[in-house]
Write a structure and sequence with these properties.
Layout: H1 11-39, H2 43-54, E1 59-61, H3 62-69, H4 73-85, E2 89-93, E3 99-103, H5 105-125, H6 132-146
Antiparallel strand pairs: 1-3, 2-3
Helix pairs in contact: 1-5, 2-5
């Protein structure tokens, strides 16, 4: 269970933690809302479609998609079932075992419509509100935090 004598976060440490969380959540929520309003795609649906297009050139094995998204198999499976009903993706057996996930015509059209909406929203909700120096700092901090210890 770890060391139970570890001090709890100080008020200052808590402020930093909450600022860090709020920074990402606020922008993600606004961008997600803009995409949903324009395209009726949920955040997770957009995530699946955009990864399929960018990384898989339109199709990927389901287990690779789960890895790229950082989702458990069960969560992805449920999400893909919902998306299949909406004709956004299709699934077919892969050679031997596993499943291919592919964009449908509908999924591709929705994604193509959503990408400029996302671009505009990211520029409005994030990039235009920061200086070049602040953006560079965020990128540096992200790279530091993303490095394995």
């Amino acid at each position: 269970m770890g060391n139970m004598t570890t001090k709890s976060l100080s008020p200052r440490e808590l402020r930093i933690w909450h600022a860090f969380l709020a920074m990402g959540e606020d922008v993600l929520e606004r961008v997600g809302r803009d995409i949903a309003n324009a395209t009726e795609l949920s955040g997770p649906e957009f995530g699946v479609l955009s990864r399929l297009a960018a990384i898989g050139k339109g199709e990927m094995r389901q287990h690779e998609l789960a890895t790229v998204l950082g989702w458990e198999k069960g969560r992805l499976s449920h999400q893909l079932s919902r998306m299949q009903k909406r004709k956004l993706i299709e699934r077919r057996p892969a050679d031997g075992r596993g499943t291919w996930v592919a964009l449908t015509k509908v999924g591709r059209e929705k994604l193509e419509y959503a990408l400029p909406v996302r671009a505009e929203s990211v520029r409005r909700n994030l990039l235009s509100r920061l200086s070049a120096e602040q953006i560079d700092t965020i990128v540096r901090v992200s790279n530091l935090l993303g490095d394995e210890e």
